[in-house]
TrEMBL record, chain A:
Record-annotated EF-hand domain positions: 551-586, 635-670, 675-710
Pfam families (alphabetical): EF-hand_7, Metallophos, PPP5
Comp. bias regions, Basic and acidic residues: 329-344
Organism: Strix occidentalis caurina (northern spotted owl)
GO molecular function, one term: calcium ion binding
Keywords per UniProt: Calcium, Hydrolase, Manganese, Metal-binding, Protein phosphatase, Repeat, Sensory transduction, Vision
Catalytic activity: O-phospho-L-threonyl-[protein] + H2O = L-threonyl-[protein] + phosphate; O-phospho-L-seryl-[protein] + H2O = L-seryl-[protein] + phosphate
Coiled coil: none
Name of the protein this chain belongs to: Serine/threonine-protein phosphatase with EF-hands
Functional summary from the UniProt entry: May play a role in phototransduction. May dephosphorylate photoactivated rhodopsin. May function as a calcium sensing regulator of ionic currents, energy production or synaptic transmission.
InterPro entries in the cross-refs: Calcineurin-like_PHP (IPR004843), EF-hand-dom_pair (IPR011992), EF_Hand_1_Ca_BS (IPR018247), EF_hand_dom (IPR002048), Metallo-depent_PP-like (IPR029052), PPP_dom (IPR013235), PPP_phosphatase (IPR051134), Ser/Thr-Pase_EF-hand_contain (IPR012008)
From TrEMBL, chain B:
Keyword Nucleotidyltransferase in record: no
Pfam families (UniProt xref): EF-hand_7
Family matches, as InterPro entries: EF-hand-dom_pair, EF_hand_dom
Keywords in alphabetical order: Repeat
Protein known as: EF-hand calcium binding domain 2
Superkingdom assignment: Eukaryota
Species this protein is from: Strix occidentalis caurina (northern spotted owl)
Signal sequence, renumbered to the chain: none
GO MF term set: calcium ion binding
Residues annotated as domain EF-hand: 11-46, 89-124
Amino acid sequence: MGNCTSLQPLQFRRLALFLSLAFKAAVLIQQWYRRYVARLEMRRRCTWRIFQSIEYACEQDQIKLHNFFSYLMDHFTPSSSKERDFISRMFISGESFKEAELEKYCDYESMEVPDSYTGPRLSFPLLPDHATALLEAFKQKQQLHARYVLNLLHETRKHLKQLPNISHVSTCYSEEVTVCGDLHGQLDDLFFIFYKNGLPSPSKSYVFNGDFVDRGKQSLEILIILFTFLLIYPKEVHLNRGNHEDHMVNLRYGFAKEVMQKYKVHGKKILKMIQNVFCWLPLATLIDQKVLIIHGGISDTTDLDMLQKIQRNKFISVLRGKKRKESNKDVEIQEINGESKVEAESSESESDLSLSPQPRPAPSITNRLEFSKWLRQTVQEQIEWCRQLVDSESEPEEPTYSSVVSLTELDAQCWTHQEEWKQILDILWSDPMPQEGCRVNTVRGGGCYFGPDVTDKILEKYNLQFLIRSHECKHEGYEFCHNRKVLTIFSASNYYEIGSNRGAYVKLGPDLVPHFVQYQASKTAHTLTMTQRISRVEESAFRALREKLFAHTSALISAFKAYDKDNTGKISLSSWAMAVESVLHLGLPWRMLRPQLVRSTVDGMLEYKSWLDDLAMEQRSQEHIQSSLLEVIYRNRSNLETIFRIIDRDHSGLISFEEFRQTWKLFSTHMNIELTDDGIDDLVRSIDFNKDGNIDFNEFLEAFRLVKQSQPILFQRPR
Amino acid sequence: MASRKDGAVAEIEKKIIEAFEVFDHECNKTVDVREIGSIVRSLGCFPTEAELHELLAKVEEEEPTGYINLEKFLPVMTKVLLDRSYQPIPEDVLLHAFEALDENKCGYITKEELIKYLTEEGEPFTEEEMEDMLSTALDPETNTVRYRDYISMMIVDET
């Protein structure tokens, strides 16, 4: 700046003027920039909200699906053996093989590994070299031969069976314990963790807190790696079960699909084994008796003693349908009135996919007659058992499903299955909330929301210092709540989209003070500026949101028309926001999102008709207003896909016309959709592209986009 | 609050509540005081830091708790929007500001100069803010900020 006193008065004045200008200019620029950043922050949060609400709405869909199954149990009386067979298939998918049968079915020893196979060859017991070979192979995108996969799964199961429900880790053996959260098939994140933190070893303990699979494309590789390390370093590697270690969830969220695609011949066996292995995963881990690690959370009824003792492998799938609360009351009332206990119809039974009695071994599928008979009998048994559940308040529990009741387990048997099952559901599905109390987690459909008071209560009861859980994606990869007594750790970076969030893992030493490492395993993410990152994620979120809006076109039109009595085709911003929320129920800040969704006209009104037309064109479909049926299918496609996968037991990707018709009929009745038999037939015919009487349901799911190109019968039908 | 509300006022209030709720993590009608700046700015206002502090003084509790209540915030913010306080900075004014810092009128400002002005003058940037701005604004080959290009790019981003 120079020495003021040496300046001439004119120069001094000029300088002073300039400085004051510079000051003002700086203020302006800073003012403007800070506003820009604030807008970005708002956009980022809105984007996050969009992703979360859609994710949870999807989980709600899962609830709807299970409500559908309950509905079936309640109301559907099969009128023909065909229908009965069909229904029973949806419930039997949860069957579990007896041990010997599983071994036989998933036998690998007779599998030959060709000489041309260049991937890793495993031999047991596994050695650290096998692990490094696997890591290297997966980096090179190689695939492990099915024989070794099955072998590994068998050995893993053997090992897991001897583990207690709650693993114990002590920091005096290995100085540090590293805890990782959800990985969801994102192998790059696991590679990064190993790269940054080191591989599991006698001096490096790891706890993986569930949700290894689904959504990401390399779930199987992650499982293989985790199981391998588990077997090599059994004292140092600990796995907790997550809510996605559940075959019903896997059918919907991509893991089942991944396995079938990667192992076309042996995929079914592999899935069967994995289904079994999952239910043998431990439920929780305790570090130094002070830190409890569970996947989801806790509830006010969480009982660690019960959790220690239950037979965890009974719970193949933890998801279930609606609760039949009324049924017990009805029975009671009748008793009070002196009437005999009403024979509970199947409509009053618990529709519980997870706790059904183990069916007798299925006869060979080639003998159709025998098979149908077996199915029918099994369904009958299921219904009977459900009936008994309702009356079972005073009766002793049916021992049909439990294999061995040893003396030491007699204590366990005095808990009802409801209680045991609730314990597991709570720790796998719950989420913390800021408010006090404990209420049902309606968003996820399982577990509860637990408040800081519940946390305090449980920590005190078991003399714990804090909880570590996962289950929820966090922007920074981790987050504290409940006064730093609950830590959420999430290890899948870029979970929603590249740039959406970091992943993290946490290390604990003997002082149990957490140290975090965050990362974002994507080269692209690093080279993008903050603006670009946010824009990219935002684009993705809005695409998903627009899809959702399109799927509800008819309902939206009705809602808009209610605000536009004069049929001008325009409504105000306020009306638009209210209408959209009333249809989608996503709880989003619609006014904030409006600029990215709709153009507004000069007088501040929104032209809703043309807006919906634009949306439809974007989704590459036309005449959307008339095809309300396709809309419904589109909206429910994940549910339908899940149902299809359950029906398609041989995982062939094909279902017959008849099966599809049945499914659709049931589904539409449940969803209160008007549809004639002709309507279904037309739909079916228009989808069968190769005219062979079978529907490739992958094609079907794309069909609503393609139908117009092939046979637009539906569109021309007057509505 | 006035018992008879204009449709326009009701609309404004709804907008404010929406923006507020985006930052209301505990769903209890309060936000962290440090987020007020983001909320005010995302509602279309361009306050300086000084103006923001003034506003905060009006919405804070007597004994500052670190949280701002929606109850207090709403009427104050409604008035801000109705009065159109904290007007936006138009593109040409922004351009003049950059030009004022460009002593030699050569169309760019060097990295060092920009850092000096923005971290020492006006309402100084934090190191983080400076880095963030440079990450987009700086042309790495010349180590300068070609401000016309930068402004054009940012304006496009905004829409």
